[in-house]
Amino acid sequence: MTTEPTLPLPLKGHDFDAFLGRIEAERHYAGQIVNVTRLPERPARHADPREPLSVPLRSALSARGIDRLYAHQAEAINLAREGEHVVVVTGTASGKTLAYNLPVVERLMAEPDSTALYLFPTKALAQDQLKGLTRFLETASAALPPEDDLITSIRPGVYDGDTSQSARRKIRDTSRLVLSNPDMLHRALLPYHGRWARFLSQLRYVIIDEIHSYRGIFGSNVANVIRRLRRVAAHHGADPQFLSSSATIRNPVELAEALTGVGTRAVTDDGSPRGPRWFVTWNPPHLDAARVERRSGNVEAMEILLRLVREGVATIVFCKARVVAELIYKYAHDELRRKDGALAGRLTPYRSGYLPGERRAIEKRLFDGELLGVVSTNALELGIDIGSLDASIVVGFPGTFASVWQQSGRAGRGHDGSLTIFVAYDDPIDQYLARHPDYFLGQAPEAAAIDPGNPYILAGHLACAAFELPLGPEDEEIFGCMMGGVREALTAEDRLTHLGGLHYWGSTDFPAQRVNLRTISDDTYSIVDATNGDKVIGMVDAISAPELVYPEAIYLHEGETWFVKKLDMDQKVAYVEPVSVDYYTQPVLDTSLRVTERRIERWSGAERLTLNRATVTWATTMFKKIQFGSTDSIGYKNLALPPQHLDTVALGWSPSEEVRNAVRADGRKPAEGLSGIRNLMITVLPLYSMCDRSDIGGVIDSSNFGHPTLFLYDRFAGGVGFTERGYTIWEEMVLEALRLLEDCPCQDGCPSCVGLPILRPAQHQDPDVMNGFPIPDKGAARVMLRGLITP
Amino acid sequence: MSTNLNERLGRLARGPRTPAPPPEVGTIRNSRRRKAPPGLETVLPGEEIRTARGVCWLHERPLERWPGIEDGLAGRLAQVLASPAPDDLERDCGWAGWRSRGVDSGLFLDLETTGLAATPVFLCGLLSCSGGEMTFRLLLARDYSEEAALLEAISGEITRRPVVVSFNGKSYDIPFLKERTGRLRTASCRPDAHFDLLHPARRRWSDRLPDCRLKTLEWAILGRRRGGDIDGAEIPAIYHRFVRDRDPRPLLRVMAHNLHDLYTLAELTVRTAQTRVAPLGTPGEKPNI
């Protein structure tokens, strides 16, 4: 990240006021622009550290045109010098990097053997930072005698999967500043920590950049890797300070402390200047005056994309699902091919599931400015340097405000003005955001939930930790109260051997190989072209494969349609062949939930709230054929795929008889009220839990407890803390749900409030076609919710 | 993860987030009574040796007493070391270091580890001469907790005999020891000189052999074949099992394997010093294939 100069720069010829004006003046314009917020430039605020920086550091700053530090940078330096663990939480391109580089370099200069470790969520970020750091050290060295050259004395180096063997040895033996990622730390550094004795014994600082990306399962894993690092560093005699940085997040201190396990101070007073930004909310019009349904969000987004691309504005579209990225790309590409052939080749889709080579090629074309438009999933939300784009289109609320701001920040990184257009789907949260632009722009990004004590996650890391050094009783302070039980489970299964009060790794396995930080299972299905020697064309994770490549599905890949001939679940292969059709397919899933154990329960007013261990069973039972463009359903077919199981944590809420009677007295059905509340809660909980709606499932069921109960569950084995957080803040969620319901201007319930129409959001679902379900009775939900909060 | 482990973890995930009760002491996992295994003493007779980091086991035997070992190895080694050697050995600082310190300063070394990298070292075989006799010494960590003592003991041996002779030790054994001593923070195992036979052997014979592994050389150059030798890949599992069930009998085969490797290494050292590197295009020593 570079520091912005204090003076605003002119827009790169993109006058977005004029652009929006042209749209509004058009004949077919139907009032989609429901809000334009122009965020003005913000001037810089400066401060000096309590003790001045040394001459070489100051001259390195001057060489970059920096005469004074921003307020937040000075504060971070003060705290770091005092020995505090710090997290810096300021905007995109606010100079967070400098806030940790300065104290680190200062310390490395003062103590000739000391070392620092930088962790980035992606390899690309580490490479970026190495370039910046090297330049910084070179300019700082200019003020020093040649024998004190900082590059020679610090030898910064990137240690990741791409580092050659010889470079690895050199970095291990001589580097004092290593840039890496949590995966590498987990798999290549900690297991071989004996080789890193020099580096670890002098470790002063650990930098964790972009901590907001370490949430959910990934975050819980990384938290355990950091604990292992602290433990191994302590063994070698070091107790490093943690300096973290985060983009938008509600609970930076909580997350930093959960990740590192140490008390942390936050720096939040952003003193950096900012260029002008337009933030537009775009609500697709009603299909016609007589109907409540709105036009397809995908098609509207595609039209905005075409308009921007035709005006030469480099644009990125962020989609919620892979199928959406494919659809919008296909629509846009088809349109350009018909009318604007030259531009068709400057558009590309991007998502996970493409082969790595394909993805690298797209990234390079983006970076080189060859492409004018990219239609992506959140795979491009952060990390990979794709150069600067002028506009971003966010299609549908991505589940977190943090994601909205990250996606928005992808446009106009650097000094220029930028445009973000949020396109609302016809669904509750999107419509709520479209109706409440002030609420939208005023939203603090959500809190991040991680659960390092998750037994499934902890088991993998305790095995790794025991491989690194035998586990002792004092390690419970690092790994928490779940350690004892998990350790005994590993011992009982002969993974660990108990000898003289310590637990040793007693197996020929290399445990780090069995733990993938990024998902709980790294099992994948290959998607192969059966007409071309079974050439692999794409991949999909094993969990969601039966929702994407079920037999007779249409699989979309770079806008092309492929027909799934056969799904081999033993070999984990889907055989596809190219086909020309005018439809795509959407899975229909059947889900049931079985409570296996009640963990804790409490009363919320007169209602019983339980936190349970539950098994969720689901299968793709049929699929629908959806016509491209019109999204009309043109048929369906039943499937007989074996069900899958998920053992997880479920929050159960049972409305009291009184509340149900109140609904009856109003002439309404309690079951309708409960359905409405479920839909509202699936919408509301992600706002608090830093997860996507698709991370949470919800069912209503009477068979488990003998009376109607709403269950919300984590869609990850073992649970990841999402519904556990809901259990704690249930009353707040009830208020939020009622606010959402009462703010909605509709009469009897609509897709925008109680009518979230999906029972269990599928990963490969197109939000455009999810509005065909009956809408529960809004009045019943209102009576029920009001009954909960009025004494 | 195995089903059983997942079941146990599932039970934990269901339970409250509180510390587990301490493990029961003295539970017998296998209810069937088994005959106690013989003591280590009966299989690898020796003694406990004390180091700065605890104790480990030392088993020692004169090399010549083992079946299939030819007499006079110490003399042959002394002779080749004292005589002019082929050019490549004369240029090898490991060889020169050994020659200058005398044949008794040489320590033939071969580790047995529980994995390819960064896993515990549990056994170190050492072969050395003293007064014209060859002695095989085997250092053993009887469980994982004795590894630090084992490393200290190896360090002590290297201090006494500072010239390590190995087969691929520059790439494997010594870096392996470096990682383990760095990890366990024990005394370093750095020899003053190191003669690694792998490269001289490759120069002489690799173009005529399917590969240049020690076993291949033993068979092709020395004309010996081992009967009933253990597969190296089985060794880690044998050790883990020994730590759990304390039955030392399978370790005998590990010891024999290690001893044979060292003996072959020493004999090959003699043969290497007696063999010039053939210039390109001329037939060298005809291997015994």
Descriptive key words:
heterodimer, A: alpha/beta, seven-stranded mixed sheet, 29 strands, globular, disordered N terminus, B: alpha/beta, 11 helices
Overall shape of chain A: it is globular
Q: Report how far the terminal alpha carbons of chain A are from each other.
A: 53 Å
Q: Please tell me the overall pLDDT of chain B.
A: 88
- SSE ordering of chain B: HHEEHHHEEEHEHEHHHH
Shape of chain B: elongated
- Figure out the total of helices of chain B: 11
The counted number of beta strands of chain B is 7
Spatial order of strands in the largest sheet of chain B: 1-2-5-4-3-6-7
Oligomeric grouping of the chains: heterodimer
**Main sheet characteristics of chain B:** 7 strands, mixed
Overall strand count of chain A: 29
Structural class of chain B: alpha/beta
Number of helices of chain A: 27
Please state roughly what percent of the residues of chain B sit in beta strands, choosing from under 5%, 5-15%, 15-25%, 25-35%, 35-45% or over 45%: 15-25%
Which pair of chains has the greatest number of interface residues, and how are they split between the two chains? A-B, 56 and 40 residues
Description:
The complex is a heterodimer of chains A (791) and B (289). Helix content of chain A is 36%, strand content 23%. Chain A has 791 residues and is of the alpha/beta class. In chain A, a hairpin with a 5-residue loop joins strand 19 and strand 20 (535-541). Chain A is globular and about 80 Å long. Mean pLDDT of chain A is 88; it is low at 1-13. The longest helix of chain B has 23 residues, at 251-273. In chain B, strands 1-2-5-4-3-6-7 form a seven-stranded mixed β-sheet. Chain B has helices at residues 3-14, 40-43, 73-82, 87-90, 93-101, 147-160, 173-184, 198-205, 214-220, 235-245, 251-273; strands at residues 46-51, 54-62, 106-113, 121-130, 133-140, 163-166, 193-196. Mean pLDDT of chain B is 88; it is low at 26-32. Classes of the chains: A alpha/beta (791), B alpha/beta (289). Chains A and B meet through helix 19, helix 21, strand 17, strand 18 and strand 24 of A and helix 1, helix 7 and helix 10 of B.
